[in-house]
Amino acid sequence: MKIKFLSAGLLMLVSMQVLAGSNITVYKSPTCGCCKKWITHLEQNGFKVKSVDMQSVTSKKIEFGITPMTASCHTGVIDGYVVEGHVPAKDIKRLLKEKPKGIKGLSVPGMPIGSPGMEQGDRKDKYDVLSIDKNGKTSVFSSY
User: Cβ(60)–Cβ(72) under 8 Å?
Assistant: First the structure.
């Protein structure tokens, strides 16, 4: 019984350490409802969110190297990584834990139905979370 309790406590401690200091800044349109829902998703998963409303997020996308092929409606920055679009919180946590070399961030291009913030009933479109390397090349980080 003590081993199970210790294991659960250790797991919780590691999870808290991964999120310690996990403040994400999200650049978004002031009128975008799905951005607000994604922010709620992040907060429900332990992230502290600073929301910055902008009439156009394009300048931030350019600043962080987001191309039209990897773009979505909002752009986040956390611990030196860019997070573009409706990336699930568990993938951000994985990125922060693993810190893969050469990766500048994650993206869910477009706005797939069923991704966090884009829920519409029972419909869930298939989509990929892409990792973006320092040269802008993408690869699949996870699939839903």
Answer: no
* pLDDT tens, residue by residue, 10-52: 444 444 444 445 899 999 999 999 999 999 999 999 999 999 9
- Reported as half-sphere exposure (CB side, CA atoms, 13 A), residue 140 has a value of 6
Does the structural domain 21-143 have CATH classification 3.40.30.10?
A: yes
| CB-facing half-sphere around the CA of 123: CA atoms within 13 A | 8
Contact 114, 144 (CB under 8 A): yes
Output the pTM of the full model.
Answer: 0.84
Mean pLDDT across the chain, nearest whole number?
Answer: 89
Instruction: Look up residue 91 and give its DSSP letter.
Output: H
**Helix/strand/coil percentages in the chain, nearest 5:** 30, 30, 40
